[in-house]
Amino acid sequence: MGAVICTGIYIGGMALLSSNGFVHQAEHILGGWQIPAGLLVIGVLFGLWPDVDTNSVGQNIFFGLAFLTDIVLIATGRFEAAAYLGLLAMTPIVGHHRGWTHSFLAMVLVPLPIVVVPYLHNQGILPVTIVVYGAAVVGYFSHLLLDGKVVKGFAIRSKSRY
Questions:
Q1: pTM, two decimal places
Q2: Closest residue by Cα to residue 24 from 131, 140, 120, 145
């Protein structure tokens, strides 16, 4: 829920700023309902990601997506990409719960491929990827905020486990 609220505020802010400078170059991605909905999904997914290192909803979603994506990559003969995805999918087990996945460095680095990979293929897409990256970072930030990593002593933890 925190990621929904924080990403919603981010999307609203991007819509308000869409006539200024850098954001103006990416304003076409905020047109229609599909793109804000997509940004919201990205924010929520990255809001769940820090808990991928423990038995959680986030872990189920991300490992399920990684598994399906790996199958598609292997079926289409993209073995190198499948191997890299497999390697990256194992990174959350390096460490302990609320370890490196709950750090500000991870908040910035984990979503970075959203910018880097498309940019390597098309430099003109940078404004769009920056807006998408922002939604991912905001979603991730919401998790750190609600876990008490941003403001010491402020943490909201769910009493039920899914």
A1: 0.77
A2: 131
